Amino acid sequence: MGVKAEVLPLDTDCHHFVLENNWTNLEEPYGSIFLSIPTILDSSLAPEGRHILHIFTTSSMDDWKGLSRIEYEAKKQVVADEIISRLEKKLFPGLKSAIDFIEVGTPKTHRRYLARDEGTYGPMPRSIPKGLLGMPFNTTSIDGLYCVGDSCFPGQGVIAVAFSGVMCAHRVAADIGKPELSHSIAGNCLQVERLEKKSPVLDAMLLRLLGWFRTLA
Ligand SMILES: Cc1cc2nc3c(=O)[nH]c(=O)nc-3n(C[C@H](O)[C@H](O)[C@H](O)COP(=O)(O)OP(=O)(O)OC[C@H]3O[C@@H](n4cnc5c(N)ncnc54)[C@H](O)[C@@H]3O)c2cc1C
User: Which molecular function terms from Gene Ontology are attached (predicted)?
Assistant: First the structure.
């Protein structure tokens, strides 16, 4: 949401977690609310005098199935209104009337625009999680096809995804025989680069060793 800045007290923190009901609602759908206000840290993200509120809660695809377009839009409004009034009570009185812009997403939105299976929050494993090492690294069984992002090691979150990108760029640079390309990507790749430049055999062995570690995960 985009809101007028005056609705937030001056000492408002960036991150909030709202759980009104003594933990009993923690894992219930819509039970807890996660709120981040990035403009507290970087005011240039919004027009002057405005803040961005990024709010989310838990829900499942089942709760949004079988609705007509009109019912779907109406339900989005009901859920959003409920969350806003909870935030008004707990944190920011007058929030509703301070809203300039609002966009509501659901598990269906995640499925449609992010291609997330069942509209999940992130890359949920289909079976029992194998831990981080069980996730794909950047290479695939198809030569020259790489993968990157939060479905790969080291997983979910903006920082992890950025790291996955650096790792992948380095892998590609090494594979096409231009390790110097990754100089511009990250200085800390230097040691690995030297190793690869010196010894493609050792590099291939390292990859195989990593693959073996992953079978243990
Ligand atoms: C509600 C929510 C809150 C979050 N909060 C945080 C947070 O506070 N901090 C944090 O660090 N992380 C947070 N995350 C996690 C973080 O946003 C993700 O881990 C990260 O954005 C994943 O990046 P990605 O590039 O792997 O995938 P995405 O950001 O999902 O990008 C994948 C892109 O590929 C496109 N795509 C999919 N299929 C196709 C196709 N067939 N053809 C073309 N394009 C396609 C999608 O449209 C999308 O743009 C949050 C995630 C969610 C859903």
Answer: isomerase activity
Distance 192 CA to ligand 1 centre (A): 29
Segment 16-38, tens digit of pLDDT: 999 987 788 888 999 999 999 99
Q: Which atom of ligand 1 is nearest to the CA of 56?
A: 1
Residue position matching structure tokens 């690294």: 137
Q: Which residue has the tokens 């009109």?
A: 70
Q: How far apart are CA 33 and CA 55, in angstroms?
A: 7
Question: If you measure from the C-alpha of residue 155 to the centroid of ligand 1, how many angstroms do you get, rounded to a whole number?
Answer: 11
146 has a pLDDT exceeding 90 = yes
- Contact between 14 and 38 under an 8 Å Cβ cutoff? The reply is yes
Distance (Å, whole) CA 14 – CA 4: 16
